[in-house]
Amino acid sequence: MGQNPVCIVTDQCPAMNQVIPMSFPATNEFPATKHHLCMWHIMEKFPAKLGNFICKETALMENMKKYIWSSTIEPFEFERGWKAVLKEFKLEGNRWLWEMYVIRTSWIPAFFRDKPMFGLMRTTSRSESENNFFSQFHRQTDTLCEFYLRFESAMDKQRNETARLNEEGSSALPAIVTGMFLEAEAAKLYTRPIFYKVQEEMVASVFEVKVGTNYAECSCKKFVMCDILCRHAFCALNHFEVVKLPRNLVLNRWSKNAKNAPSILKLFGVSEDLAKMENASLKQTNIWFNFQKSMNKAGVNIDKLNYVDKTIKQLSSDLGDDSYITKKDHLEMLMGPQPSEEITIHAPKACKNKGSGLKRFVSAREKAINKGNKRPRKCKLCLSTIHDARTCPSKNKACAEKDVEIEETDKRLITT
């Protein structure tokens, strides 16, 4: 990718905890990759670590979630709330809760509110949903050719779904529920799922923000975390009668024209200053919006389209062809020049790893659940679940009565 991943979310796998800092350390060009833990996996462990009764029959989990899942509180507020809940339920001495508190900066949203896009990356559900999707097409025994054909089928399904959603988004606009001019503007810009998130922020827009005609900055930092304007910014923009969304507050990936936007591969030097790269990206986005606006004005008017075509050709001639990069040049910049001599590739040595089919470790909790789901064996004589037919008391009693009858019969025969 030309740089370290910004963030990697995993479960509490010890191997991942060791390998991620080693694989993506900080360098002169890039910061180290942030390793965060999946909140869902940790929350699932609460009943097993603390007991089902205290988690399901008390208000412990409800009080905990107010501080754990909230992304609008500061770190000191989380720490104060966490300690208050532990004191209320007398859990100050619990070792597992202490361990989770020690690593709180790796899974509590309050500690990474100022990190871009971290608000959308709390769990591993995204990668798990992709695994589930592709598992419907592939099998472990597929050959390379079968894998390729099945992969193409999976991608065709995703392309068809994308085309259906694009048609749905372009053919009709969602319902407008507020009186803001910005809501109608947002309905034209955002995709349908993102618009509903934006609309939710508009409906509940109350907060203190710094706002102008081309910027909005809120102390809740939702735009920094998720790249979606918060309800407080929409309230302030509406108060100042801003009727068009500032383009620097619209992330291109959320817009309907994202698939038509030019590729912005930063292949011109991965060590360039980050601020310059962000400014260049913003300028490219603004130019693309202006071009789309010009094309919409031209419509189907031949004279206007000829004028746009002539202007673009003149602009291309003025820019020159020195900056043109072929597909081969792109590949060489990414992976290095193509080798000129023959290379022999040997098959890798086989090794066993986490996904090699070894028997999975089953916890005591899972064993107890599986045992509870099994149908209990019943005695064939009395239907009791405590014993079987071999040790049934009814069988022993019947045998004893039969022995007594035989003994009495023998006595009568002898007397006769």
From TrEMBL:
Sorted UniProt keywords: Metal-binding, Zinc, Zinc-finger
Highest taxon of source: Eukaryota
Domain SWIM-type, chain residue ranges per copy: 207-241
GO molecular function, one term: zinc ion binding
InterPro entries xref list: Znf_SWIM
The keyword Flavoprotein appears for this protein: no
Name of the featured protein: SWIM-type domain-containing protein
Species of origin: Heracleum sosnowskyi
Organismal lineage: Eukaryota, Viridiplantae, Streptophyta, Embryophyta, Tracheophyta
